[in-house]
Amino acid sequence: xxxxxxxxxxxxxxxxxxxxxxxxxxxxxxxxxxxxxxxxxxxxxxxxxxxxxxxxxxxxxxxxxxxxxxxxxxxxxxxxxxxxxxxxxxxxxxxxxxxxxxxxxxxxxxxxxxxxxxxxxxxxxxxxxxxxxxxxxxxxxxxxxxxxxxxxxxxxxxxxxxxxxxxxxxxxxxxxxxxxxxxxxxxxxxxxxxxxxxxxxxxxxxxxxxxxxxxxxxxxxxxxxxxxxxxxxxxxxxxxxxxxxxxxxxxxxxxxxxxxxxxxxxxxxxxxxxxxxxxxxxxxxxxxxxxxxxxxxxxxxxxxxxxxxxxxxxxxxxxxxxxxxxxxxxxxxxxxxxxxxxxxxxxxxxxxxxxxxxxxxxxxxxxxxxxxxxxxxxxxxxxxxxxxxxxx
Length: 392
What we know:
Layout: H1 2-25, H2 41-47, H3 52-57, H4 62-72, H5 87-93, E1 99-100, E2 106-107, H6 119-124, H7 126-138, H8 146-178, E3 188-189, H9 193-213, H10 215-232, E4 245-249, H11 257-277, E5 282-286, H12 294-298, E6 305-308, H13 313-320, E7 325-328, H14 332-337, H15 340-354, E8 360-361, H16 376-389
């Protein structure tokens, strides 16, 4: 009898948590502010006292790691986050763009797959250029004849999907066990076309030089990358108002406003508009400080979800809070340096600023990657405080 009641209680909790996100996404004021803990796999592994590299190479160890964070941290969404950069398929591809360091963290070295004089080839046929020229430079196992390349691709894709489905299975099991909302997460990921050209083709140094040497080529490259990014961000199933495509925004704070206006913004807006036209909302990770571009963000489709790293939360609430859904801003650095009361007071401040009128999900300014980057007791206290006190 007790187990049946417990199961009913868990289901009721899950329904209540799910309704919080439905209300947010439907433009209604929810019962209380939803909590998204923004914990990462790396944090979970370290918190559970496991070896960072070992767990990432052996997904049979995932459930024990994820179970620990589910037991110990309050969250309305499952705190067992997916690993977006699993090392196995990168290793099989001979990746140069994502490699595991000696500490067990996946790192993104500064490399490029396209030379400046090759822009015209990419612009003329972006998909062919990616397949035949760029990928073999980035992934050494693809720098071979077509037959061997197909085998390498096949091995890597199988490894990727084997581990993806293993992780999804564990996460799904724990979502039901602990009554988390299945909403509030990420379905898939794409990039702003300018960020794609910078991150994967030209590198940070290359793209900043290209904006001076051949800006017209950069502009054209972003335009031809747009359909690829739109396709990547579109789910295979019918889109839903409750789903989300994650778009981390990288380069905008590092380029001049006039370059942002001409080369970054047009194709980025077309991407978010295009996804919205299909019925797919976007979750933007607004990296670094976007305050000088805040009026641009207002122009995006209603209820675009925006996760802010830095900036002025009062200004963001004033400018964007009636149209868009806001999360982030809470500085994880304070969880390391502040007292428990200071950390709770900061949570109160964020709620007072961002919660009125709805359209707010509590979250930190970035994912918590290392267990020693925060005082865990402060982290627990903040999550518990928000879940218990941020009622409307």
